[in-house]
Amino acid sequence: MSLLTSKCAICEQPFNSSKNIYSTRCGHVFHYPCIKEWEAQNADCPQCKAYKPFGHILDLSFDDNVDVEKLKETLHETSRELKKYQNLHNETSLALAKSRAATEKEIYQLKGLVTKLRHDIVCHEMAQKKNRQKICALTEEICTIEASSEQTVTHLKAESDTLRDKLEKYSTELAMELSKNETTMETNKGAKPKNRPMIRIDLTNDKINDLEFRLQQTTDQLEKEISRNSQLEIENMKLKKLVTLLGIE
Asked: Quick one: DSSP state of residue 194?
């Protein structure tokens, strides 16, 4: 018994392996010679009357000795293979879904880390800006103090030199008065001593003592200013080192 029992709608004869089969675009099949003869006289499908349904030839062969049981076994085997691949597909899909969930979680964590890093960068830039402002203010303050200290040291040195000159002058005058007094005393030996030279000597001694005191004060103040300048130099070096470490231009 043939597997294909349909007949040609034109000649009403069954299809077999000795004749070609023609399929129209509307889904109907006919013997190729029959449809060609029909096309020569008509422009529609012999079965459904569709307009110009012409299609193509189907090269089919028919075998009446087909082993149906073998075909069923092959069909079952194919079905089992299909089910096996379906299960494998499901397992792969599940693994991909888990991997995708893990990847999305990791991406979410990375986005959070990136957000935190951006926040840290902004905070660091703000802190660096504040440090830069502090360093600029300290640098200006140090420059101002250095300039003021230099002026103070210069003034103190000038005052010290002036006091030293006065001290030397009064010391010379005192020596001259003492020498003059001794000469007078030698000349007027036995005479009543005069008080005037002694008064001048006392006044000169007072001036010398005052100048020595002022000179000592000026020297102490000068030493303090020099020590302060040295400390400022150290602080300035520390500040420059801090600027280098922070990488602030």
From this structure: P
Give how far Cα 203 sits from Cα of 82, 162, 197, 210, 222, Å: 131, 20, 10, 11, 28
- With a CB cutoff of 8 Å and minimum separation 6, the contacts of 64 are 1, 2, 3
The answer, as to whether pTM is greater than 0.90, is no
Element (H, E) at 79: helix 68-187
d(C-alpha 163, C-alpha 86), whole Å? 111
Residue 28: Cβ within 10 Å count: 19
Instruction: Give the separation between CA 124 and CA 139, rounded to whole angstroms.
Output: 22
Distance of CA 190 to the CA centre of its chain: 102
Q: Is 29 exposed, middle or buried (0-12, 13-18, 19+ CB in 10 A)?
A: buried
- Amino acid code (one letter) for 180: K
Lowest pLDDT segment from 28-37, 144-153, 181-190, 205-214: 181-190
Domain boundaries, the chain: 7-63, 66-175
- Number of other residues whose CB lies within 10 A of the CB of residue 16: 14
Taking CA 218 as the corner, what is the angle to CA 212 and CA 224, rounded to the nearest 5 degrees?
140
Element (H, E) at 126: helix 68-187
Q: Are 171 and 209 in contact, with CB atoms under 8 Å apart?
A: no
Looking at domain 7-63, its CATH architecture is: 2-Layer Sandwich (3.30)
**Host H or E run for residue 23:** strand 21-23
Type of residue found at 111: K
Write the single-letter amino acid at 173.
Answer: E
- pLDDT per residue as tens digits for the range 131-168: 888 888 888 887 887 787 778 778 777 877 887 787 77
Structure tokens at 140: 């200006």
